[in-house]
Amino acid sequence: MDLSSKLELRAPLKRSDAFAIVLPLSSCAEKALKHANRNRVLLDDAKSYEHLTSRSSKHSSRILAKLDFMSIIGRGSLDFGFSRAAGFQLPRERRVSPRHFRLHLDISTATLLLTDTSKAGTYIQSRSGPRLVHRETYRFDDDDDYAIVTLGSNPDMAFAITPGEGMKDSARRAAIFSEYVQSIRQTCTLISSRKVPKDGEHIRSLKRRRSSGLSTLANPAKRRRSSQAVFCF
Fold this sequence. Notes:
Layout: H1 3-10, E1 18-24, H2 27-33, E2 43-45, H3 50-56, E3 63-68, E4 77-81, E5 88-89, E6 101-105, E7 112-116, E8 122-126, E9 129-133, E10 137-139, E11 147-151, E12 158-163, H4 170-192, H5 201-218, H6 220-230
Parallel strand pairs: 4-5
Antiparallel strand pairs: 1-3, 1-12, 2-3, 4-6, 6-7, 7-10, 8-9, 8-11, 11-12
Helix pairs in contact: 5-6
């Protein structure tokens, strides 16, 4: 390894660096990564990660998903599923939920976490053995080079997931991880500072709007005035 490569390895992680890598383990899983156009900005050439592909997959994938910090800073996590609202959208396949699981980081240790949010669960095969994660969180330990993640019991939707390069180096990740944690705290502060309606207040408001709408329907004169107002620009 030359000097420039060594310096690059020691450089602090940036927003464009990966906090996790997702490698498809079948042709179906590879197509799933390319399903939505917005996924494509996170795709990378698998040749750059031959050390991972040679150990974890018999399927010779040409692409993988490089999940960078930019995809989670400000939102806290990246969720996978067939819902259009999912951060990483997958096709509607058997045993795949609208939001099947999400990847995020432990804000105290920077450990990569996978939280299942599905109906069928997520099967995980790691060095510690196979397990079904259902509505709970799996922690990628330091001993895990990668874990094979299968959505539900569908073998076609299997991926190898590993923490990004440099994530185990506390010095390299310090600045970007601090930014990630700060963004989560700011989001939580904004949510907690929102005005919470008093008990029954939102119900009374709904009743007022509903009664106003019913009175308009019952009164032809009001209905004519409201319809005229719509077209008076």
